[in-house]
Amino acid sequence: MAELASMIPLAGGPFNWVSVLAPPLYRNFLSYMAGWLTVISWQALCAGAAYVTGTLVQGLLVLNYPSYDYQRWHGTLLFYAVFTFALFVNTYLGRLLPQIESMMLLFHILGFFGILIPLVYLSPHQSAEFVFTDFLNLGDWSSKPLSFFVGLISAMDSFPGELSKV
After folding, report:
1. What is the pLDDT of residues 96-143, one digit of tens each?
2. Are 20 and 31 in contact (CB under 8 A)?
3. Rg of the chain over all Cα atoms, to the nearest angstrom
4. Cα distance between residue 166 and residue 164, in whole Å
């Protein structure tokens, strides 16, 4: 994508590149499809981020308050609360976004070291052989590859957001 961006610097991104590079017969249709897939992926990313954040908050409630009787609809309400908060920040606090993002960067850096240092110095360590050759299926999935790919979903969730910036 970086090569395309440097060769064909258009503001629209992928759907403009498809329009320029596709064969003339398919140019309009493929550009239209690329544009709509981009829009749908942005919407899915926003919904996914709000859902994960809402269910993380619910998980923290379950962890810290043993008497909390969680229901699925609580997660839905937390999803709407997170989404509404994000909408409020982007709509009414737009002028403050650079300061908010700088503060979040500082929190991310401090959080990185706040998690990494205790893990490195206080946690038990395994051998390199165990880390890279033993795969555990602690979720009772039907196979280890399925367990691997289910665990990979959360790590892959951030990539559409990174790729949609282009």
Report:
1. 989 999 999 999 999 999 999 999 999 888 889 988 888 888 888 888
2. no
3. 21
4. 5
